[in-house]
């Protein structure tokens, strides 16, 4: 048959090209190469003194050779990733060093080789073993997408050609496929002798080649263009290779292809516009400016807010104080005051009340009293104008203030107390030492008669000023006890204000700092977030507080929730807006669209940057805000009056996500999505709108005959489908190619994965107010409970008591009234059936052990690795979840009931309630020995003739073996078991 008359399955394998600005990220050796090899122009202009070892001709030759080497390495990096670049550089440099003694090598003489080796000397070589299973290994998107595509192929009938432009890429790609954990048992690199003959005879199943193989006539089931064909002839010749019952023809396609404008603008984002790491932003909005303006208004509305301090829930009557302002403002609810290691006070703000009777005389008096409080613990003289923006007074009626000032204002000579034989209760000041404030301890009298000398023993007031942070152990060690001074009583003064009340002056900076923060949060909530409707202002305050501000809370935990909501919402929008995209395109575009640059631009476009709290509270440098300073700040010549600051683009993006998280904690998913829409109007498909996208007129899955009895499965999953074809799709494996009317479950599984995150999120949110979980711990918990092995375990145990006679697919037939979800999977070929039966046999052996650990023990890492479930077991859990989400019109409660029935959510509750440790054994072992050195796990496959392959794993601490296991069925099991050996060994130390 003529090749052009055949029918081909033409597919595109989409990938994201690497960003040029990040060249070298993930490739330590490429970074070293770029640093140690000068640019081409620099090489050409090097002085003869530096190149005396070789001739002019050799100089030009070495220049070209080094330039080509860097160019080839960068090309390998862009095509295959950091791991590949390291492999290529290591192989080339190692070969050059090994042959350094040869007289000639590829046109290089000894002098040339010596120079090149000198240039490349700083490059640190690897240990010679490429570990592609390492979690931090960097692969390009192009290689990963090729890998995923190859793994979907039926191994029993697979024979393929991969055409690559560059010979170096051929060599490195072949090596990667032979060492990558996913393909090393399927594709093994071999010598090139008789390659074509062995391929034709079926002894080899994959050839990676350049265009030179185009003219050969070989039969195969798959041809992949790794690079775009250069000519029409190339395309026709390669298509001619595919003579197979189910031929496939694929081309690697960049997502930035000009032929795909819709992909780049699917949500209206500008995908190409980058943002610098540091961004010029507006200065934080200053609420004291408006308060200053209110003081100068003709008829301000005065308000009084009383503050009470509690020690162990007992009111301290001596520490009551009130704030007076010219307008009603939002106040904090409570402020924890960490006085010292033993004492924590709680400042509680009572509701503000109008001060209708406040007159100008009272106002001047209150300003004087405010000055008394600010001056009390300080030696610095206060502003003589006393035009404070925020006024303080004792919690008394206005007609009692003058008497209070008479009693507590001013100073006395210390000797007057001695002459009256009384101990002063106010702050003692040594006028000879800049009126440094001291606390009186006792009198010291020496001498007799007319030579009596009176001294006083005093101690310093507490040095601590940042009462918003608990005192650390290091601060406690460095501070030490209060210093004792003995000073002459003559010349000393003592404040009339009792020392205990004077300590209120120390707390005012902390009070005003938290007041300013809550006023900023209120302004943001009333402006940008007005339509979102967040009720609890503390959520907004936490979301806009950066870690660098060192407040009691910051946005990190809220960012975790917002990030999950963002990914879920974008995943939904892409799923329903792009019904023709496969799951790979959906995942890649979702990851692209949730990048920080889009969120950072959203923050700038909405003006959010002026509400971000990034200034650290520094009470020792703090001064009380003054009206004159807030209203009369002169602008620098030639500059705008609006001050600016620099924030990182990551902070801008983090705060957007944190505000989405704040909205989620305040009002659930609908409020969170409203907040997200405020910053990203392009996102306009919400959970509440899903039903409009699955109506009979627009449902892309409707209209096909259901091949699965949804009524029978209702007893298994606890949900009855209105559109049974959705359930059919959710249970259709990609291998089921004979059914052209039904898509496989991969698209719906992509959606179900996002839905699963949203079911876990509310359970985690319940623990945020209790302060029991950090962001890191929540991330670990979420990852552990959506673990594929765990989901597969629940899948294999999920069943219902229902007669199976109505089932329409042979693979669903059962001999009892117990119907299991896994039995309903639709697939093609014996491979999956054999894999499923083997997995179920392991499940029968391990079910009780895993269930016991889940009910009473630690997280079952080790038995889950022995279970080794195939991916389709966890996939159908997520695909059924996605199908329920679609069929129910986005009803997360229906989805929640399914996962409750499966058993996942009850287990999540137990993990959270009992604090089950979910740290992976590998990470735990590395943490235990981190002060001793670097712990590395190395696994290898062990093959014995006539027996199944096993795995050996060793734990190396500073390259010395400290534990090892063998005979494991998988590398994952071997690594977990050896990690537990390390943990056990460390526990005995």
Automatic annotation (TrEMBL):
Domain RNase III per the UniProt entry, residue ranges: 521-668, 710-889
Top-rank taxon: Eukaryota
GO BP annotation list: defense response to virus; regulation of defense response to virus; siRNA processing
Cofactors named for this entry: Mg(2+); Mn(2+)
Entry keywords, A to Z: Antiviral defense, Antiviral protein, ATP-binding, Helicase, Hydrolase, Magnesium, Manganese, Metal-binding, Nucleotide-binding, Repeat, RNA-binding
Function of the molecule: Dicer-like endonuclease involved in cleaving double-stranded RNA in the RNA interference (RNAi) pathway. Produces 21 to 25 bp dsRNAs (siRNAs) which target the selective destruction of homologous RNAs leading to sequence-specific suppression of gene expression, called post-transcriptional gene silencing (PTGS). Part of a broad host defense response against viral infection and transposons.
Entry protein name: RNase III domain-containing protein
């Amino acid at each position: 048959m003529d090749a052009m008359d055949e029918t081909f399955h033409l597919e595109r394998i989409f990938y994201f090209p690497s960003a040029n600005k990040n060249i070298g990220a993930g490739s330590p050796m490429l970074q070293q190469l770029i640093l140690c090899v000068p640019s081409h122009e620099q090489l050409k202009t090097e002085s003869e003194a530096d190149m005396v070892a070789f001739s002019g001709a050799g100089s030009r030759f070495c220049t070209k050779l080094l330039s080509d080497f860097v160019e080839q390495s960068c090309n390998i990096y862009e095509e295959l990733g950091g791991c590949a670049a390291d492999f290529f550089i290591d192989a080339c440099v190692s070969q050059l060093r090994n042959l350094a003694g040869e007289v000639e090598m590829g046109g290089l003489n000894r002098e040339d080789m010596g120079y090149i080796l000198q240039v490349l000397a700083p490059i640190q070589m690897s240990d010679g073993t490429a570990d592609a299973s390492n979690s931090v290994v960097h692969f390009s998107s192009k290689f990963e997408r090729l890998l995923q595509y190859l793994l979907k192929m039926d191994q029993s009938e697979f024979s393929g050609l991969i055409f690559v432009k560059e010979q170096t890429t051929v060599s490195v790609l072949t090596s990667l496929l032979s060492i990558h954990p996913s393909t090393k048992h399927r594709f093994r690199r071999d010598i090139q002798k008789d390659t074509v003959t062995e391929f034709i005879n079926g002894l080899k199943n994959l050839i990676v080649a350049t265009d030179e193989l185009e003219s050969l006539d070989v039969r195969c089931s798959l041809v992949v263009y790794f690079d775009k064909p250069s000519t029409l002839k190339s395309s026709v010749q390669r298509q001619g290779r595919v003579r197979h019952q189910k031929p496939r023809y694929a081309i690697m396609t960049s997502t930035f292809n000009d032929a795909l404008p819709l992909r780049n603008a699917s949500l209206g984002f500008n995908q190409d516009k980058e943002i610098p790491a540091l961004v010029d932003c507006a200065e934080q909005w200053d609420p004291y400016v408006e308060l200053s303006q209110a003081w100068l208004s003709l008829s301000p509305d005065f308000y009084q807010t009383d503050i009470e301090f509690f020690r162990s829930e007992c009111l301290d009557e001596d520490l009551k104080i009130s704030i007076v302002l010219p307008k009603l403002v939002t106040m904090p609810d409570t402020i924890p005051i960490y006085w010292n290691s033993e004492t924590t006070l709680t400042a509680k703000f009572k509701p503000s009340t109008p001060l209708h009777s406040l007159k100008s005389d009272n106002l001047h008096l209150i300003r004087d009293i405010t000055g008394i409080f600010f001056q009390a613990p300080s030696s610095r003289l206060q502003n003589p104008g006393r035009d404070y923006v925020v006024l303080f007074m004792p919690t008394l009626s206005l007609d009692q203030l003058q008497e209070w000032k008479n009693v507590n204002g001013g100073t006395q000579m210390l000797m007057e107390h001695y002459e009256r034989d009384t101990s002063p209760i106010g702050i003692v000041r040594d006028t000879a030492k800049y009126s440094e404030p001291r606390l009186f301890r006792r009198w010291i009298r020496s001498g007799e008669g007319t030579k009596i000398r009176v001294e006083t023993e005093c101690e310093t007031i507490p040095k601590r000023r940042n009462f918003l942070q608990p005192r650390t152990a290091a601060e406690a060690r460095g501070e030490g006890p209060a210093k004792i001074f003995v000073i002459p009583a003559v010349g000393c003064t003592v404040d009339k204000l009792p020392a205990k009340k004077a300590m209120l002056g120390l707390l005012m900076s902390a009070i005003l700092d938290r007041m300013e923060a809550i006023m900023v949060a209120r302004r943001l909530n009333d402006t940008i977030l007005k339509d979102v409707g967040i009720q609890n202002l503390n959520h907004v305050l936490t979301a806009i507080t950066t870690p660098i501000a060192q407040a009691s809370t910051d946005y990190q935990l809220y960012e975790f929730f917002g990030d999950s909501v963002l990914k879920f919402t974008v995943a939904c929008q892409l799923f329903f807006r792009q019904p023709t995209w496969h799951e790979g395109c959906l995942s890649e575009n979702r990851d692209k669209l949730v990048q920080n640059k889009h969120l950072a631009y959203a923050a700038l476009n909405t003006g959010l940057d002026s509400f971000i709290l990034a200034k650290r509270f520094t009470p020792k440098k703090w001064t009380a805000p003054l009206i004159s300073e807030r209203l009369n700040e002169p602008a620098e010549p030639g500059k705008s009056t609006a001050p600016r600051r620099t924030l990182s683009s990551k902070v801008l993006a983090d705060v957007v996500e944190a505000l989405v998280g704040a909205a989620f904690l305040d009002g659930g998913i609908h409020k969170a999505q409203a907040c997200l829409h405020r910053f990203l109007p392009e996102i306009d498909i919400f959970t509440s709108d899903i039903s409009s996208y699955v109506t009979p007129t627009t449902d892309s899955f409707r209209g096909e005959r259901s091949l699965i009895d949804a009524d029978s499965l209702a007893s298994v999953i606890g949900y009855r489908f209105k559109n049974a074809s959705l359930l059919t799709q959710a249970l259709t494996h990609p291998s089921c190619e004979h059914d052209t009317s039904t898509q496989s479950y991969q698209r719906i599984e992509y959606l179900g994965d996002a839905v699963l995150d949203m079911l876990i999120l509310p359970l985690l949110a319940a623990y945020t107010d209790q302060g029991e979980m950090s962001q890191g711990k929540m991330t670990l918990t979420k990852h552990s409970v959506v673990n594929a092995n765990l989901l597969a375990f629940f899948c294999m145990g999920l069943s219902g008591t229902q007669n199976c006679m109505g089932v329409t697919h042979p693979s669903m037939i059962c001999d009892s009234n117990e119907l299991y979800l896994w039995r309903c999977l639709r697939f093609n070929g014996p491979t999956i059936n054999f894999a499923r039966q083997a997995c179920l046999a392991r499940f029968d052996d391990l079910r009780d052990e895993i269930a016991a650990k889940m009910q009473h023990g630690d997280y079952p890492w080790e038995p889950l690795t022995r279970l080794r479930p195939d991916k389709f077991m966890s996939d159908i859990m997520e695909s059924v979840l996605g199908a329920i989400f679609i069929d129910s019109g986005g009803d997360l409660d229906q989805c929640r009931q399914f996962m409750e029935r499966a058993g996942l959510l009850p287990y999540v509750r137990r993990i959270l309630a009992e604090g089950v440790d979910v740290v992976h054994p590998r990470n735990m072992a590395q943490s235990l020995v981190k002060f001793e050195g670097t712990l590395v796990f190395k696994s290898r496959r062990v093959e014995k003739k006539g027996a199944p392959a096993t795995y050996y794993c060793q734990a190396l601490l500073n390259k010395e073996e400290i534990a090892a296991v063998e005979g494991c069925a998988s590398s994952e099991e071997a690594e977990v078991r050896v990690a537990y050996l390390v943990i056990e060994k460390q526990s005995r130390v």
